[in-house]
Amino acid sequence: MLRRAILAAADDPRVRRFVGKHGMRLGASRFVAGETLDEAIVVLRRLNDRGLWANTTILGEGVVDEGEADAVTAEYQVVVSRLVDEGLRANVALKLTHLGLELGEEVAYRNVERLVAHAESLGTFLRIDMEQSAFVDATLRIYQRLRGEGHDGVGTVLQAYLYRTPEDLDVLLPLDPNLRIVKGAYLEPDTIAIPDKGDVDKAYADLVETSLAGGGYTAVATHDERMIEHAIRYAEEHAIPRDRFEFQMLYGVRPKLQLELAGRGYKVLVATPYGPEWYPYLMRRLGERPANLLFFLKNLVRG
Fold first, then answer.
1. Span 142-156, pLDDT tens digits
2. Which of 288, 286, 242 is nearest to 268 (CA)?
3. Residue 301: pLDDT band by 50, 70, 90 thresholds?
4. Catalytic residue numbers?
5. CA contacts within 13 A on the Cβ side of 136
6. Ramachandran angles phi, psi of 123, nearest 5°
7. End-to-end distance of the chain based on CA atoms, in angstroms?
8. Would you call 268 helix, strand, or coil by DSSP?
9. Could you write out the three-class secondary structure of 182-204?
């Protein structure tokens, strides 16, 4: 109920105005690496210096103007080049609605293919994030199309709380895909998404096992230590080498756990977004874990 209330508040214009005005001062900067690329570069380098990998995202989604989608694509080209030029162990993740998916699948494909080709030419990688259930089919079609046209430096995401995801994984496995497995952060109806947390955890563990047993690469994206240790045990028991998987966590969430896993010799990637359109992202982070909301409210009281 708390999660639903927070995600519903994300659409309240009064809440948005208040958080948009005061959020960075009150604690949003814990989860967002600034509003500019220069600010994000500083954070990414600090993560690398601590033995962590990273990706970054220009926060934003739902672009419905083709010129704006083209501008976002051009901005991402700059980001990809800058990460390589800076010598950072970091890549880019992006949302297809930010590249014009709501304008049409061909618009999004044209823009993301341009970015994937640019990233591959520089020897780096790009991940297509997953969004609300309405965009899952188009996102997976675009990913499969990219792979079918010979683009190997691209991955995508599957969400464990969707009933459909085991079948989606079965379809993708012959591609030897690079997949990030998440539990899911959007507010979806019970007819589409598993409502019970325990059942989501079970679905998540099953997906991770199936993905690890496949021929691709698995990014185990969770802050749940039980799920992390489960993945480690499964990999050890089935002789899955460490270069076939990694752990991914969010910037500002469980930083000690990130360093602990890196210290144990596992690759840990920290998702580190930036940009002025950080409000929807922050609300999803607050909705995911009560501890995140408590941190934000403490800062609100102190402020």
1. 999 999 999 999 999
2. 242
3. very low
4. 129, 180
5. 20
6. 75, 25
7. 27
8. strand
9. ECCCCCCCCCCECCCHHHHHHHH
Distance between CA atoms of residues 149 and 113, nearest Å: 10
CA-based nearest residue to 89, from 274, 268, 273: 268
Handedness of CA 128, 133, 135, 138 (dihedral sign): positive
Angle subtended by helix axes 66-85 and 105-121, to nearest 10: 20
Distance CA(154)–CA(57), nearest Å, equals 15
Write the single-letter amino acid at 11: D
Nearest Cα residue to 300 out of 6, 3, 21, 14: 21
Domain covering 36-277, topology: TIM Barrel (3.20.20)
The set of long-range contacts for 18-23, using a CB threshold of 8 Å and a minimum separation of 24, is 19/279, 19/282, 19/283, 20/279, 22/303, 23/278, 23/279, 23/282
pLDDT tens digits for range 67-97: 999 999 999 999 999 999 999 999 999 999 9
Per DSSP, the three-state class of 303 is coil
List Cβ neighbours of 56 (8 Å cut-off, separation of 6 or more): 33, 40, 44, 79, 83, 90, 92, 93, 271, 272, 273, 274
Residues in the chain: 303
SS3 214: coil
What residue spans define the domains of the chain? Answer: 36-277
Residue type at 141 in one-letter notation: R
What does the block give as tokens for 88? Answer: 């950072």
35, 59 in Cβ contact below 8 A? no
Give the DSSP H/E element, type plus range, for residue 167. helix 165-172
CA nearest to 159, candidates 189, 195, 210, 193:
193
CA distance 270 to 125: 15
Amino acid in position 264 = R
